[in-house]
Design goal:
Blueprint lengths: L1 H26 L7 H4 L10 H9 L4 E7 L2 E6 L1 E6 L3 E6 L13 E3 L2 H9 L12 E3 L13 E2 L4 H27 L8 H21 L3 H22 L11 H17 L3 H8 L5 H50 L1 H44 L4 H7 L1
Antiparallel strand pairs: 1-2, 3-4, 3-7, 5-6
């Protein structure tokens, strides 16, 4: 009965969202653009949902919280730049004023700066928004100067925070085990972590890695808790969606791939290049099996990235519907606000569940792939048993 109710609620939520999104798109439909308006599709200060979504899920040089009175309120982060001949420059991102002013020969590229360059007839090819470039005294891009950016962006800072939290929490639990022993009843945060560790051991490590599971438990637990901590922190308003960054998930997938390759054996490679199938099929199956080596980490990378980005986009869309309807009519915006907040809270709680599920799936698939790479000859294993 409860499952049917949840399914019905999800169907109703999706249907309502689709209907409202269609209405919002139709409401934003305008007359065909003239030559004057075609060059400026988004007036400055006008609500732009697409831009807000991209700013929310992309990296930046500060933690932006909100705008009030046309002024952004954000926590600036250190900018670390190196240019040959000029050397190292370190300053806070507030000096760049979100791209509205240049500082010490550097410019943070934003939409307004790109529009200014186009108005002056300057080619903007190769200049991407959010990037820091070198400029001359007149604010023009200086392509002759190469800028190496080692800045502490919000993704980097948040990952450092996640690492510190992981080390502090896990070392605290380890000290309790060392002091009280494994036979004493757990207490405090140890009481919450122990069932999770046991679950990863019994449901991920042992079934997929067999008697060798203990040597891989540090890796599996680190991956699980590191992803989980970043997922949870990313749900706090104003923080970064680190696990929704393709570079982050790619590095985790590469780590899993390297471990998988280091643990391969003769049987694994013989199964790849000489599978036990008829010779006529080997010519088809061998390339497929070989590509499968690389599609495994690719699947890990895309799965985590897509799920975390999608959740943040859905939450942002529900919030933005308030402002979309408010742009049509203040009454419509106020009337839709409670419903939008309700659905946002509903999706938010689902995202908390997704944070745990995606951490588990990435860890479990990593164990599965490592276990497959260590798989020996089946006949030999059965003879041993």
């Amino acid at each position: 009965m409860g499952n049917k109710f949840v399914k019905s609620l999800l169907v109703a939520a999706f249907s309502l969202f689709s209907l409202l999104n269609t209405v919002a798109v139709k409401a934003q439909h305008e007359e065909p653009k003239t030559e004057e308006t075609a060059e400026t599709p988004h007036e400055e200060g006008k609500f732009n949902p697409g831009k807000i979504i991209m700013e929310h899920i992309s990296d930046s040089h500060d933690f932006h919280f909100f705008d009030y009175g046309g002024k952004p309120y954000a926590l600036p982060l250190p900018v670390i730049l190196y240019t040959p001949g000029k050397g190292l420059d370190v300053f806070m991102s507030s000096k760049l004023d979100h791209g509205h002013t240049a500082y010490n020969g550097y410019q943070l590229v934003n939409e307004h700066y790109l529009e200014t360059l186009k108005e002056k007839g300057i080619d903007t090819k190769g200049i991407s928004e959010g990037k820091i470039i070198a400029v001359d005294a007149e604010g023009r891009p200086d392509a002759a100067i190469k800028v190496y950016d080692f800045s502490m962006t919000r993704n980097v800072v948040q990952m450092i925070i996640a690492v510190i939290l992981l080390i502090v929490l896990m070392t605290g639990v380890a000290k309790k085990y060392k002091t009280n022993g494994v036979k004493s009843a757990p207490s405090g945060f140890q009481n919450a972590v122990e069932p999770v560790i046991t679950f990863i051991r019994d449901e991920v490590g042992k079934p997929n890695l067999g008697h060798k599971y203990e040597s891989f438990m540090p890796l599996l637990l680190t991956i699980f808790f590191f992803i989980l901590i970043n997922n949870i922190i990313g749900l706090v308003p104003g923080t970064a969606n680190v696990t929704g960054n393709i570079a982050f998930t790619a590095v985790l997938a590469i780590v899993s791939f390297v471990v998988m390759m280091l643990k391969t054996n003769k049987h694994f490679w013989s199964h790849i290049f000489w599978p036990p199938v008829p010779h006529a099929i080997k010519f088809i199956l061998v390339p497929v099996e070989f590509l499968g080596i690389f599609t495994k980490p690719f699947a890990l990378m895309i799965r985590l990235f897509a799920n975390m980005v999608a959740g943040h986009i859905v939450i942002t869309c529900f919030i933005m519907l308030i402002f979309i309807f408010a742009g049509m009519s203040k009454v419509a915006g106020i009337g839709f606000a409670p419903l939008s907040v309700l659905f946002t809270v509903f999706i938010y709680f689902i995202e908390i569940l997704v944070a745990f599920i995606q951490a588990f799936i990435f860890t479990n698939l990593t164990a599965v792939f490592i276990g497959q790479s260590m798989e020996g000859d089946h006949g030999h294993e059965e003879a041993k048993h």
